[in-house]
Amino acid sequence: MNQPTDMSRSGRPAPDIATVGTTNTVGQGHCHETEATHDEANLWPTGRHFFRQRIDGRFAYFVQPSDTDRPMWGAYSKPEQTPGSFLGTVHVQEGEQARPWRVQSTSERYAGIEDAVRAMRRPPSWHRDRDSARRWARAALDDPALRLLDIQTTGLSPAWAVQIAVLDAAGHTLVDEILDPDAEITAAASALHGITAAAVADAPAFADLFPLLTRALHGQRCVAYGMQFDARVLADELRRHFPTQGPAQHWMAASRWEDAMPAFAAATGLWSARHSAYRWQRLHGAYHAATNCQTLLAQMRALAA
User: Fold this and answer.
1) Pairing with 246, which of 64, 78, 83, 147 sits 20 to 30 Å away (CA)?
2) How many angstroms separate the Cα of 285 from the Cα of each of 45, 193, 225, 297, 298?
3) Which residues pair with 259 in a beta bridge?
């Protein structure tokens, strides 16, 4: 993404909005970002009071008010600057290093202008969506059948389990085991979770852990951050464990499998114009199964509060 070269009204260079706070987010993917049309380019003025930033494939347009010298801009979805295209006002909190960008209508702070714009692009349903996410977290935490699950693997594809952890709603550890995957652990995976071939040489196999895992998960409400991946790993392990497919399918069908990611995405409310959906958020855990379960539990409690 190119950095803007426009100057602010005070003559200072416009802030480095292209690089501050930019992070890759799970599940967003990549696509070609469209350029502005010829008519749009003709409508948009040039000068030190204005800049535009392409965020999630769509431009946002920023205008510094004429009555201030502060690093403050009105943000618009279109270059015409009509009331209908007004997104909100952002400013840089000078002296703030970690999260300098503030959305004035909500007082929310962000590391980069990208997330500030995503917050201003929220749909009108966001408050309802956020409340729904809170209700989901409260209901899950009140459910005695809640089980928090995380699996570390040999890689992404194929992905065999090398570590499995399960916690209950009180935070008690029900499962926390390193496994021998009977498969190669990729160097990239080992670099993340630190589990190597030497570490699993004397570890139990999935078949050895299966009775304990069944007691912990069978018939329960199982929640993971990115459950699609964890459930797929479990299903693959079960298909390898059982001689036929029927028992594996029956085992999986006996439990409820829920993904926490949509709730946290809705609660945060950073809207992707490219995907017309809330952006996935990082768990900010670790590449360690039990630690990720504990982090997810803490995040769910914070969401429910």
Assistant:
1) 147
2) 45, 12, 10, 11, 11
3) 224
Alpha carbon distance 2, 203 (integer Å)? 49
Cβ-count burial 185-224 (b if 16+ within 10 Å, e if not):
bbeebbeebebeeebbeebeebeebbeebeebbeebbbbb
Looking from the CA of 44 toward its CB, the CA atoms found within 13 Å total: 21
Domain with 172 in it = 127-304
Q: Which residues contact 211 (CB under 8 A, 6 or more apart)?
A: none
Residue 65 preceded by cis peptide, ω within 30? no
Do residues 204 and 290 share a domain? yes
Instruction: Quote the pLDDT of residue 26.
Output: 30
pTM: 0.80
Q: Could you say which of 104, 121, 138 is where a domain stops?
A: 121
The CATH number of residue 209's host domain is 3.30.420.10
Tell me the average pLDDT across 10-26.
33
- 46 by Cβ neighbours in 10 Å (0-12 / 13-18 / 19+) ranks as exposed
Please indicate, yes or no, whether residues 89 and 184 belong to a single structural domain of this protein: no
What distance in Å separates the CA atoms of residue 109 and residue 102, rounded to the nearest whole number?
4
The answer to whether 154 and 196 are in contact (CB under 8 A) is: no
CB–CB of 76/58 below 8 Å?
Answer: no
